[in-house]
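Input chain follows. Return structure tokens only.
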Amino acid sequence: MKKVIRWVVMGLLLAIFLFSGISVAATLYRYEVSDQRYEDAAEQFVAVAGDRDYIEGPDLEAGQEPEAGDGEEESWELPPITVDFEGLKAVNSDVTGWIYGEDTLIDYPVVQGEDDEFYLHHSYDKSESSSGSIFVEAGNRPGFADANTIIYGHHMKNKSMFASLSYWGDQAYYEEHPVLWLLTPQQDYKIVLFAGYTTSATSDTYTIFQETGTELEEYIMASAAQSDFQTSVEPGGKKQYVLLSTCAYSFDNARYVLHGILEPVHSAGGVRKSE
């Protein structure tokens, strides 16, 4: 009888071991498929623009930035990449941008759907994916028209999607990567980061502001005050902002967020705008 029990126990343990192994293998396979899909997208639709700091403009010599007060509202600095949005939109018309950070793990198309559920479980090309997409809050107006736009991404165990947002909680990492880039078909932006911290999914951090004003100013100041990193960046005034959000695991429904100023540059899709 004891031998029978022993064999039954061993059989159960073996079954559990095999099931766990299969589950891990299946998860790793899903990660690999998702990562490859986004790597293929970057290879097909994104090109490194090369070492360019500034572009020639009216009455400017090559490499010279317009001086303050000459009427230019956009920076003449160009993004380090170019993006084929025509090709991307042929794959999925929901594509609204591309977010990129030099020497970081962030390099993804950005989509916006009719709700905040679909792209939790679908890739940028609408194929099913446990990694989901980097997507804009459905309640925001399209084209990053609001004063504060929210962008979500999963925290994947292999550090893909937005899992690396928490890296900015380290002062040294922030100082090495103080900006990200947001490219769109109509207008490119430098995301100048000024705050990063852990918060609750139900906190006021997830407030959408369509216009600038006193309430937005208070919101931005409160966000900057709780940042994990210190910066000389001074938010405020009539600016546009973006909130990047992913899951965190320090408490139930925890999220790690980054706040940034959207500074327009003189390009769209990484290509200089025509005069």
